[in-house]
Amino acid sequence: MLIRHNFLYLFGGMTLIGLFFLGYSSNWLRTERRHEDLNSTPGTEKKHDDLGLHSSPGTEEKHDLGPYSSPGTEKKHDDLGLHSSAGLHYKQPSALDARRDIATVSTWLAPIVWEGTFDPTLIDDVYKQKNLTIATTVFAVGKYVIFLKDFLESAEVHYFVGYRVHYYLFTDQPEAIPNVKLGEERKLIVRKVPSANRWQDISMGRMAALEKLTKSELDNKADYIFCFDVDAKFYARWSAEALSHLVAVIHPWFYNYPREKFTYERKPESEAFIPADEGDFYYAGGAFGGSVQEVHKLTKTCNEKQSIDRAKSIEALWHDESHLNKYFLYNKPSKLLSPEYLWRDISARTNEVKIIRFTSVAKNMKEVRPNV
Ligand code: UD2
Predict the structure, then answer these.
(1) Quick check: CB of 319 below 6 Å from ligand 1?
(2) Ligand 1 center from residue 371 Cα (angstroms)
(3) Which of 68, 200, 218, 341 is most deeply buried (CB count within 10 A of its CB)?
């Protein structure tokens, strides 16, 4: 009897201890889990990997658009916030008084940057805090080295002044690079590239070189990249108001043309083909940019499409510019720069263009091109 009682006491005691431990350990597990959750919260908010605005190409099955429409991943800047300094004095923004003579936003809600649509003081206050590095590419092959001096000297006066700028200069003649004094935190990196017999191949060859540059070489070295023609000159501010993850410039010749008149590639056999009833804007090949990752996707796609055409002995009407326009049609730019950001010396001034920031210089094709 006594033994049975003792056994019952012992059994009851052990059950109680067991229950106590069970309760404690599950609480402990819960607490640990909470710690894990808390540890993973600050600063690591999950973001959408793909910031791209992809639109569907037409239904024509013939044209496999492949990467034109494919989403991808993108490395992002840690802080996407637009922080401004307390006490900064600038004109009050207005929800009403915008310029009425121009569109300041596209129908997919990308800003269109014109004089009067941004406040340079505020823009610089916001973006200078971000400690950005802007990679800037320019190609000067063959006789085009003569344009380098003006390009670089004028960029030093007007282009991303006060920001860290790394110029990547691609040339076949490093010895012909002019000696231009660069500002603080600005440097020139020279890449030797071969020349070609046709100017069209030099122009299109830029896509392959840019694909390579943006693949991994700029990792942790640049936040944004802009790619320019060399036969051009800066005349006014061209700066942080242009920053966004995919940036296109509206071509100065066609900004008020109907889409069927754009000089898109119209041969259905070409990878750059765009049907007459499609198109947003006609974009210039002489300036484009964005985040390094987005420009990598763009240049890789254009390079691939150019290669497919080449294998079929097809050349798009305006070479790299035709492929660029195809890319931007289905991968919408997140910011559009008005023709102020790439004018042409040979174009007549128009009322909308209040300021010319950057312009292609008039050139004698016969003198500078290896073939005409
Ligand atoms: C337009 C585009 C250009 C390109 C081209 C394709 C603008 C302002 N320009 O300009 O970007 O899409 O059409 O047809 O939108 N280059 C050399 N050596 C050469 C030839 C070219 O270095 O012998 C380089 C140089 O950086 C030059 C660029 O390639 O600026 C484009 O060539 P272009 O300026 O002669 O082409 P263009 O004026 O037809």
Answers:
(1) yes
(2) 13
(3) 341
Q: Which amino acid is at 300?
A: K
User: pLDDT value at position 46?
Assistant: 52
Do residues 224 and 292 touch, judged by C-beta distance below 8 A? yes
Residue 97's pLDDT band, with cuts at 50, 70 and 90, is confident
8 Cα distance to chain centroid: 77
Give the whole-angstrom CA distance, residue 268 versus residue 351: 37
Tell me, using a 6 A CB cutoff, whether residue 160 lines ligand 1: no
- Closest ligand 1 atom to 139 CA: 26
Tokens 């440097």 locate to 187
**Per-residue DSSP letter, 363:** -
How far, in Å, is the centroid of ligand 1 from the Cα of 316? 14
| DSSP codes of every residue in 147-166 | GHHHHHHHHHHHBSTTSEEE
Q: Is 113 in the pocket of ligand 1 (CB under 6 A)?
A: no
Give the contacts of 159 (CB within 8 A, at least 6 positions apart). 136, 165, 234, 238, 239
Distance set, CA 190 to CA 15, 176, 195, 289 (Å):
78, 11, 15, 19
Q: What is the pLDDT of residues 20-57, one digit of tens each?
A: 444 444 443 333 333 333 333 444 445 566 778 888 87
* pLDDT value, residue 372: 84
Q: Measured from the CB, is residue 331 less than 6 Å from ligand 1?
A: no
DSSP state at residue 32: H
Q: What is the pLDDT of residue 287?
A: 98
> Is residue 252 lining ligand 1, measured as CB closer than 6 Å?
no
Cα(345)–Cα(358) distance, integer angstroms:
10
Ligand 1 pocket check: which of 203, 251, 253, 342 to mutate, most ligand atoms within 8 Å of Cβ?
203
Catalytic residues: 321
Tens of pLDDT, residue by residue over 317-347, are 999 999 999 999 999 999 999 999 999 999 8
Span 182-225, pLDDT tens digits: 999 999 999 999 999 999 999 999 999 999 999 989 989 999 99
Ligand 1 nearest-atom number relative to CA 368: 23
